[in-house]
Amino acid sequence: MTISLAIDTATSRTIVGILDGDKVLFEGFHEGATEHGFAITELVVKALAVCPKPDQVVVGMGPGPFTGLRVGITFAHSFAMARDIPVIGVCSLDAIAVDQNEYTVAIDARRKEIYWASYKDGQRVAGPEVSKPAEVSGFIIDQYPDLKKLVALSASQNVSEPMYLRRPDAVPTAERK
Q1: pTM of the predicted model over 0.90
Q2: Quick check: 117 pLDDT over 80?
């Protein structure tokens, strides 16, 4: 089986795991929307101390806040490059496990908005998008990507660019009005 280092930083939670196929060998997380930078390093060090070396890195590509995504994606690519192993990107919303046939999942996008996507029979049918919560009906929030699902999706997805759904806050001086 393939040993995967799985990372997701699309939410306020930094999630790291090592899986052998669908068997979780290590799973850890740290709460803190502004603490992804130090948390990811600590979690990976703990994982590598008790698990075999990974053959690939699977990383959540969002949607999510810019800084959190950048931390996880940059770490994943740097780790993989140093070891000459592949990186596979997966939509973070797709990895949220819900035991229903039809549902909409959402994560906090800050600024009184949510990132969301809808699913039917396990397939995404709408989104991902960013909206005000009042504009999306019946969504499930406060769930996090599941590492087993993240790794399983790596067989069918390879998202190569971060999923940023809104314009950056910072703009060049020449573009300001």
Answers
A1: yes
A2: yes
Residue 30 has pLDDT above 70, yes or no: yes
CA dist 51 → 26, 36, 55, 162 (Å): 7, 22, 12, 28
Average pLDDT over residues 139-158: 96
Domain residue limits, the chain: 3-93+147-175
Contacts of 133 (CB under 8 A, 6+ apart): 106, 112, 113, 114, 139
Residue for token pair 């009184």: 112
Rg (CA), the chain: 16
Residue located via tokens 């306020």: 12
Query: Looking at beta carbons, which pairs linking 100-104 to residues 24 or more positions away fall under 8 Å?
Result: 103/138, 103/140, 104/136, 104/137, 104/138, 104/139, 104/140
CATH class of the domain whose range is 3-93+147-175:
alpha beta
Look at residue 170 and tell me whether its pLDDT is greater than 70: no
Query: Is pLDDT above 80 for 140?
Result: yes
Pairing of strands 87-90, 56-60: parallel
